[in-house]
Specification:
By secondary structure, the protein is mostly helical. The protein contains 9 helices and no strands.
């Protein structure tokens, strides 16, 4: 019987690595285009929050959602933000697929080496991490793309401060979770 960790993509002759310089330039051009076309900065957490409100209304009803101050202010709608959210998911999948790096696995090997093979533990920590990241993004009134990329492009002090804090915290977190290797 095949487990979810055994599913692999069709192998390719050579793996394609995306150059960070080209990707960075592409994000910059995308940011400019978004400002010109929809007069909004890049950002994803508001759309994700709106989508979660849409899901919550189907589960608990629209009255539940409208009583929540945040969801009442940021109701679910099909707009640029939702298009960006869906496009990010599809783009990430297609990027990994074309790079030959896509594989479906319940527990990534780097996680299993450090924390063991438990899929339940992996999903619980990922879910908790998502909650913390979304809470932080809402608290900061923006996510990595909203604060860091869009804020940095607009030369906003908050954007540069966010970037100056994000990278060292990410490095420290990576060392704390996975050690020096």
């Amino acid at each position: 019987m095949t487990s979810i960790t055994d599913i692999r993509p069709v192998t390719r002759a050579a793996r394609i690595d995306w150059t960070p310089y080209l990707v960075g330039a592409g994000i910059g051009v995308l940011s400019w285009a978004v400002f010109v076309v929809v007069n909004n900065p890049l950002g994803i957490t508001t759309a994700l929050s709106q989508a979660s409100g849409g899901v919550a209304s189907t589960i608990w009803g629209s009255d539940f959602v409208t009583r929540n101050a945040y969801w009442a202010k940021n109701a679910f709608k099909l707009d640029y933000g939702m298009l960006f959210l869906v496009g990010t998911l599809i783009g990430g999948f297609l990027s990994a697929l074309t790079a030959g790096a896509w594989k479906l696995e319940a527990v990534p090997s780097v996680w299993a080496e450090r924390f063991g093979p438990s899929a339940l533990r992996r999903y619980a920590v990922a879910f908790l991490g998502g909650i913390i990241a979304m809470y932080g993004a809402r608290l900061a009134n923006g996510c990595t793309s909203g604060n860091g990329i869009s804020g940095g492009l607009q030369l906003a002090l908050s954007g540069w401060l966010f970037l100056a804090v994000m990278f060292p915290v990410g490095i420290v977190t990576a060392f704390a979770l996975f050690g020096r290797r």
